[in-house]
Amino acid sequence: MSDSSTVLYNEDNIKSLDWQEHIRIRPGMYIGKLGDGSSQDDGIYVLLKEVIDNSIDEFVMGNGKNIDIIIDHGKVLIRDFGRGIPLGKVIDCVSKINTGGKYDSKAFKKSVGLNGVGTKAVNALSSYFKVQSFREGECKAAEFKEGVITKDYKLEKTREANGTLIEFVADENIFKHFRYRPEYVENQLWNYAYLNAGLKLNYNGKTLVSKNGLRDLLERKTDVENLLYPIIHLQAEDIEIAISHNTQYGEEYYSFVNGQNTTQGGTHLAAFREAIVKTFRDFYKKDFDSRDVQTSIVGALSLKVEEPIFESQTKTKLGSQNMAPAGVSIRSFIVDFMKTNLDNFLHKNKEISDAILRKIQQSERERKEIADIKKIANQRAKKANIHNKKLRDCRVHLTDGRKTDDENKLGTTIFITEGDSASGSITKARNVMTQAVFSLRGKPLNCYGMTKKVVYQNEELNLLQHALDIEDGIENLRYNRVVIATDADVDGMHIRLLLLTFFLQFFPDLVKSGHLYILDTPLFRVRDKQKTYYCYSEQEKQDAIASLRGKAEITRFKGLGEISPNEFEDFIGDNIKLEPVILGEKTKIEDLLGYYMGKNTPERQVFIIDNLKVELDQIKLEEEVIDLSLAGKEELRAMIYEEPLPDKTVLDDLQTVSMPYGKYKGQIIINLPVYYLEWFSSKGFPEGRLGMLLSTAFIIKTHGLEYLLKKKY
User: 73: phi > 0 → left, psi -120 to 50 → alpha, else beta; which?
Assistant: First the structure.
């Protein structure tokens, strides 16, 4: 080996990072995955949480009953009315690692933010950060950029009430294309309200407050009409629980430690599930199968632990074994509480205890009815998993232990694709460490109204539940993101609907926990010799055309199979665009599925027609191309139909987007009001794709969507 290839190792090779640099270079160590805000565990929500946690801790200590939160175009403002940071320590508390009052266990015994890093991480990861502390008529403020102080304000007099005001803007160089989703923020804030009775959170002009704690949470998160008995709500010092059973499949839990939403559970949730089963067995004096007790249960648990140990910096899974250092075990504490309090409740409320017994017995009957089918199906799935042709697995999984860093675990993704061509492209382009692919053979079964027996009878659905490892609940879910990746055509949309039905029918907690997504793929590629743009909308396409100097070459992607692996690598990498499947707080799943997947109803027909979008692409015009931004609507109609419409109001309601590109070619998106279809029908539809789309719309209006799907249009 020559001397030139020898690597020197001396003082010059040792790189020392400032705290700001360390956080910015390795943000995943502090806040988990970065993301763009499309997932509820993305970094921007962790930044928000880290600041609010400090305000919550002040409230818990009896200081300040209001917290104001304003989010406007990426800028966040959080104002609490606690004691305020000691004025001489304001800069240190937001810019020096391991600085803070929470190291004194007596001051903040049961706090979330014990590591002294949270607010400093927000500071380092923000392009703008300002802190103001108000104490006893004085104010101290400072401004930072990327964790480096840019302005140190002198101590000033103020009339502001005591408390702290934090403003920050997440750095777009780190959180690329980020956007706060109001529904995620509101859900996060509601959790604070449920866990802190009397706390008032004012978010963008909306007030969030809870009087009944976890009972309010379950009432808001579930369909109360489908609960089999009133919510059981019990609490004591350091613990609060709420439970009931409903008619859905699976289990659904919401767990918290010191106000932190532990979305991945932990030792406390395991103890809670065990305690429910043990208490019911002892009360009814029957050795129930745990699955029969837990099926269809909805529960919430809030625990206060002294100096909690979490299994990750993002604090989503509790690792503590004891309620306090050298204290009683978490398991014993929860089991003893449930044994005493839940048992007493059941003795005093016979109607509820009878309803619970009936539910357990019903679950037992249903389990035994499908036991043989389930056994055979699981044996087949086990054999198939050894050489599962449908699954191209990744190396890292959400359930991996502490040796795998949080960022990789939270980035684990499985794409559910249609057909071999699409799955082939994604398989070649994916990150084999964190991205898996499951391939469907066409359209899956419509599961609406069926029992879980069908999941075991249908080989494909059974293999899918085993690939995800969600047969007995989502606690062992192997991937953080389950992504439906289908074409954006009618068939693709139908497959999406069928998969959504499958998950909502049998695994609603997967959706409610924020694990289900739709892959957003580009509709167009616009390029010249110098630049290439991938466009996700008509407007993006037009903007790309305008930005190119040379003649634009435009490709319309008809399906995922047409996208090459090299191009797919861009779409499913760091710039991946995902649309989360979000259920509204008061959504009733049974009503939702009945509306979209049940028997055809006039209400659904009206919805389809009112939301109909007719698309026309690659129009060949005999005249010169007309600039649609200047063209009158009568001229437009003349372009796509030889005689003008009879009623002027028709032209007024017709909306168009975009303009043709290049001579004799173009694309027009037409939002067509329903009542025009009858006019087209009486006159005869135009030829070509426009006519086909218009006639298809007329069929939907006349016969309904199911008729259309049977005809395979």
Answer: left
Q: What is the pLDDT of residues 239-298, one digit of tens each?
A: 999 999 998 877 889 999 988 888 888 899 999 999 999 999 999 999 998 889 998 999
H or E, element range at 22: helix 19-25
With respect to residue 171, please indicate whether it lies within any of the assigned structural domains. yes
Instruction: Judge if 311 and 450 occupy the same domain.
Output: no
Domain-located, residue 4: no
- CATH code at position 584: 3.40.50.670
Give the tens place of pLDDT for each residue, 306-344: 888 887 666 788 988 999 888 899 999 999 999 999 999
Q: What is the 3-state secondary structure (H, E, C) of 104-161?
A: CCCCCCCCCCCCCCHHHHHHHCEEEEEEEEEECCEEEEEEEECCEEEEECCCEECCCC
Neighbours of 368 (CB within 10 A): 11
711: helix, strand or coil: helix
* Whether 221 and 204 share a structural domain: no
> Are residues 262 and 202 part of one domain?
no
Based on the fold, state whether residues 322 and 401 are members of the same structural domain.
no
Average pLDDT, the chain: 78
Domain boundary among 319, 346, 363: 363
Are residues 139 and 64 part of one domain?
A: yes
**Which residue blocks in 548-631 are alpha helix, DSSP H?**
565-571, 589-597, 602-610
Does 424 lie in the same domain as 301? no
Residue 128, phi then psi, degrees to nearest 5: -145, 130
Question: What's the structural domain count of the chain?
Answer: 4
pLDDT of residue 529: 83
Q: How many CB atoms lie within 10 A of CB 634?
A: 12
DSSP strand pairing (524-527 vs 614-617): unpaired
List helix spans (H) across 178-263. Answer: 182-195, 214-221
Q: Do 30 and 170 contact (CB within 8 A), yes or no?
A: no
Whether residue 476 contacts residue 407, with contact meaning beta carbons closer than 8 Å, is answered with no
pTM for this prediction: 0.70
Written as six digits, the tokens of 115 are 């590591």
